[in-house]
Design goal:
The complex is a heterodimer of chains A (about 150) and B (about 270). With about 150 residues, chain A is of the alpha+beta class. Chain A is built from 5 helices and 5 strands. Chain B is an alpha+beta fold. In chain B, about 35% of the residues lie in helices and about 20% in strands. Chain B contains 11 helices and 14 strands. In chain B, strand 12 and strand 13 form a beta hairpin. The chains are: A alpha+beta (about 150), B alpha+beta (about 270). Chains A and B meet through strand 4 of A and helix 2 and helix 5 of B. Bound molecules: flavin-adenine dinucleotide (FAD) and FE2/S2 (inorganic) cluster (2 copies). Flavin-adenine dinucleotide (FAD) sits at the interface of chains B and A.
Chain lengths: ~150, ~270
Amino acid sequence: MKITLVVNREEREAAVHGPESLLFVLRERLGLLGAKDACLQGECGSCTVLLDGEAVCSCLVMAGDAAGSEVLTVEGLGTEDELHPVQAAFVEHGAVQCGFCTPGFLISTAHLLGHNPTPTTDEIREALAGNICRCTGYGAVLRAVESLAGERRS
Amino acid sequence: MNIERPSGLEEGLEALAASPEATLLAGGTDLMVEINYHARRPEHVIALRRVKELKEWDGRRLGAGVTFRRIEQGPIRALAQLARTVGSPQIRAAGTIGGNLGTASPAGDSHPFLAACDAHIELQSRRGTRTLRWDEFLVGVKRTSRQDDELITAVVLPEALPRRQEFAKVGVRSAMVIATVSACVMVDDEGQARVALGAVGPTVLRARRAEEMINSESEKSDAALAEFARLVSEEVKPITDHRSTEEYRRHAAGVLSRRLFERCLRT
Ligand SMILES: Cc1cc2nc3c(=O)[nH]c(=O)nc-3n(C[C@H](O)[C@H](O)[C@H](O)COP(=O)(O)OP(=O)(O)OC[C@H]3O[C@@H](n4cnc5c(N)ncnc54)[C@H](O)[C@@H]3O)c2cc1C
Ligand code: FES
Ligand code: FES
């Protein structure tokens, strides 16, 4: 089956076989390798994308059910020349070690700040509870997000 | 594989009547895990995400397609409390209450709330509408009395919900955790308590003897509360599995019930 969907503000067409996931289609059919393929059971958040504005695990979205939707992956967040503020904050605070979890964290953080520009530390922790960092670099991630929340507060 | 994506309830019921063997897909947070791990390979899927009637939440009637994210932000205290404990923000953005009932896991976090308030589950098919009480609907481990051509359409709450209501669950961390034990306690204006427990039996259960005992005590003394917790521990029917032991679950069920009851009394 063929589906059409808007990925990173661009209309794309993709072949879909059986009940495969949106994550699989993004990576294997559309060549977007930002969202990571890890647990495939919703536990790690490394596959997080925005689907019609909601941060979801793309490994748990059936691709056939995403036809007609709008998807934002980390590739659509900023460009190499112009980083998204969340990306810039992660770089500045060293919130990236191996980087495997980073695309998911960036999408979750962008989603959080879009809804709540000045989250408290507790709100940040809760909003990022579905993103696991295997390098356990949570302190730097928190500082990066807090710096953005702080900037907006002042 | 064939996927149908009805946008209205009539269309959905018709699709299911034509193919009652079809696999229903809501948020996918249970179904896609099974598919990703090759436990299921559906030939025919009916996706419910676009059925607008299922997303309606009108007072007592909570559509099956309402997500835990919306429930978390809703006005019903214990329902919002439990929604906040489901998975992670990503899981709550996709996972629905209808899917939680469809899966019928003994640890389904919505179940203790529904049992404590004696909620009903509404099922619709082309043949008509049935409304079953929670314990008529949830009949065993991952077993419900839904017929193949029926959709879970809504949860119907009682006319009056006790104002005092608390939910909590025990698990190994505070996010992304399947309950080792979950509990919901409600106390109505006459002071009558209801206590429901999840993950300690094939389905959620009410601790009827503990309810009766504490409801007959005018003074909720320390001794009465201790006896209440003891009866809850006795009444639950937990097993030992990879998540916990029977003994721990009995103990935790009693402690949790007492704690939630005391919280209700303080509000
Ligand atoms: C990482 C992770 C963490 C989780 N944490 C929790 C947790 O803390 N607590 C908890 O309770 N659950 C948890 N779950 C399980 C799951 O998120 C919930 O059970 C959720 O409510 C399922 O809803 P869904 O819409 O995603 O269902 P789906 O996966 O789409 O469907 C689940 C089942 O219900 C059926 N179904 C769905 N809608 C209907 C309908 N309208 N009529 C008839 N049948 C229907 C489907 O056919 C399927 O069999 C977790 C899952 C994951 C992956
Ligand atoms: S790969 Fe999707 S949550 Fe881990
Ligand atoms: S930076 Fe390595 S997994 Fe997070």
